[in-house]
Amino acid sequence: MNIPRYLVIRQALETKINNGILKPGSRVPSESEISIEFAVSRMTARRALVDLDNAGLIARSPGKGSFVKSKLDKPTLISVPSPSLNFSDSSTVTLKVLDLKETTSDQRLQQDFLKANEFSMIKGVFLYNNDVSPERLQYVYVLPEYYSAFIKQKFSKISPEGYLEWSLPSDTVSKNIQAVSLSASEIHYLEDFEKNDHASLLIKERRITNKKVTSVIYNYYLREDFIIGDW
Q1: Are 118 and 198 in contact (CB under 8 A)?
Q2: Whole-number Cα distances in Å, 228 to 29, 71, 143, 198
Q3: Residues with Cβ < 8 Å from 155, sequence gap 6 or more?
Q4: Between residues 191 and 65, the one the model is more confident about
Q5: Are 65 and 28 in contact (CB under 8 A)?
Q6: Cα gap 95→6, rounded to integer Å
Q7: CA 229 centroid distance within chain
Q8: Each residue of 2-32: pLDDT tens digit?
Q9: Any idea what the Cα angle at residue 96 is, between residues 92 and 102, rounded to 5°?
Q10: What's the half-sphere exposure (Cβ side, CA atoms, 13 Å) at 176?
Q11: Which of 25, 79, 192, 199 has its CA 20 to 30 A from that of 185?
Q12: What does the pLDDT look like over 162-211, one tens digit per residue?
């Protein structure tokens, strides 16, 4: 099973950005430079750069090139509570398991996992509640070859993130942050949540171990008291 070349290029550049090798304001290799380095066509190189641009990681300027965005270029970067890995750390947050099953990937997840074809995975849907209202809706997708026991967990003492990190520590956790409106598929999990166009904060996390994507998490934060600033 071959991974599309543009996804390989995108991941290589994204890793350099996340690791600080390509710093904010730095010029990203051009289409021509990428095509030579990775032995691909300029069209493939262009697709990788467009993908990074759409993800908000770089800015493309006609005639000048592509540059890594700084934090000030990303208005969606805000301060949010760091998720607790162990529920004993907080008595005010509870977790409810809404769904936990084996399933197959769709096209979006194939791209997130850097895979070309459909594959088997485990899907978990979790709702975090504080004393007053729902706080976070979380989708967790894991590869069973790395986390075969994930589907058997009760998550009464440890959060899904805590279990993933305990079971297989990640080398890198890449994050993409954006403001989104809750869709019908998210709202139907929220019995007491107002069914309107309320915008939530989506933080997508991709865990990488030994250069392999092992899990992807979508965190929909539902609270309205976020603080604008660095995250």
Answers
A1: no
A2: 31, 12, 34, 18
A3: 95, 97, 126, 163
A4: 65
A5: yes
A6: 38
A7: 20
A8: 567 888 898 889 888 887 888 888 999 999 9
A9: 150
A10: 18
A11: 79
A12: 889 888 888 877 777 776 777 777 767 665 555 444 556 788 889 998 88
Q: Which helix (H) or strand (E) holds 75?
A: none
Assign 72 a pLDDT band (cuts: 50, 70, 90): very low
Neighbours of 32 (CB within 10 A): 10
Instruction: Report whether pLDDT(49) > 80.
Output: yes
Assign 62 to helix, strand or coil. Answer: coil
Tokens of 165: 């990190």
What is the phi/psi pair of residue 107, to 5°? -65, -35
Q: Which amino acid is it at 156?
A: S
One-letter identity of residue 60: R
Task: Kindly calculate the radius of gyration of the chain based on its CA atoms and give it in whole angstroms.
Answer: 19
Reading the block at residue 102, the tokens are 């084996």
